[in-house]
Amino acid sequence: MTSPAISPAKLFHLGGNQGSPVLLIHGFGSDRHSWVATALKLFGRHRVWAIELPGHGDAENDVGEVSPEILARAVAEAIAELPRPFSVIGHSLGATTSLHLAKLLPDDISHIAVIAPGGWGTSIDHSFVEALPELRTPEEAERLLHRLVKRERLIKPQMVAHVLNMLERPGRREALRNIARGILAAPPPPMPSTDQLLVIWGAEDGINAPDHVRLQALRSKALLLEDVGHMPHVEAQSAVNSALNAFLPL
């Protein structure tokens, strides 16, 4: 049972009926739907699941004093029936959570791909994290979400409406405020023990600035995408999907 201080994470089978299992973990203020373009390219080769973290998507909003490590424990409890070994792909907060999950389940995770991993950057835009739970109007939401990408046209009215609808769920704003505080107070996540690591980052990420020293040290395990912001899996779908399909075991 998940601790009563935090709601359970929710697991969804997105598709695929053959190949190795893959778990997707979304970023702050997002949900499983952010992975649509990624999941569609994985279905032919993998069985694909997505988690929704407490305070996000269809999960409940009791989070209390929370941290990425606590979120990882909630994920670990939600995926008890997931086939082993599996690969994990996480974005931003989901990447940070993935790195903690790999520490919790070192024998269960074969490959880990992290996209714009929170806590590994040189700086984080506190104003973005703090502002997201407070959005009230489409104009405010559009301005803030434009900061996620280099090409602002990718932020469609449907995305803006989805974010605002999500924020109107009872208890959601307070849950995200608590998670935001936990993100900003958290130490850097651990380096996974597996050698099967891939790091993907947008060179123009203004939310979580890439650490070029770390990326250079990782060499072939790192992919830095030029003219791309904080959401490479949305903004550079082809490059990210190619890298993931080459990286993940069949």
TrEMBL record:
What protein am I looking at?
AB hydrolase-1 domain-containing protein
Q: Which domain of life is it from?
A: Bacteria
Q: Sorted alphabetically, which InterPro entries does this protein's record hold?
A: AB_hydrolase_1, AB_hydrolase_fold, AB_hydrolase_sf
Species this chain originates from: Nitratireductor aestuarii
Residues annotated as domain AB hydrolase-1: 22-241
